[in-house]
Design brief:
single chain, Arc Repressor Mutant, subunit A, three-stranded antiparallel sheet, globular, alpha+beta, 109 residues
């Protein structure tokens, strides 16, 4: 594998790590249908505010989310429409191979 390909795989692995954590994934899923405040995300994901804030920072730094301030509130949204498409495509894949994923013991929590 050429060096360029290795670097590309490292970047791709980093992208998928953003989706690999259940809390980060819950945040992304929460934002699929539009912009939300931290309070709304906390309520939807049923996670603590500090946990959500830490994961939001990670998702922002990795370029998956963007934010904007409006008064005292910060509103978060998915930065790129392709991220939403990836989430939608993952639903399709899961529906097609659910049994195999469910039975896979290599990636247990």
């Amino acid at each position: 594998m050429m060096m360029l390909e290795k670097e590309k795989m490292k970047i791709k692995a980093k992208l998928f790590r953003g989706f690999a954590d259940p809390t980060r994934l819950a945040i992304l899923e929460s934002l699929r249908d539009g912009e939300k405040t931290v309070t709304e995300i906390v309520q939807e994901t049923e996670q603590s505010q500090s946990n959500v804030s830490n994961h939001l920072s990670c998702l922002l730094e990795c370029g998956l989310l963007k934010n904007r301030r409006q008064g005292k509130n910060i509103h978060y949204s998915i930065r790129n429409a392709k991220v939403k498409e990836l989430l939608e495509d993952s639903d399709i894949v899961i529906s097609e191979v659910y049994k195999e994923i469910f039975e896979c013991i290599r990636y247990e929590e």
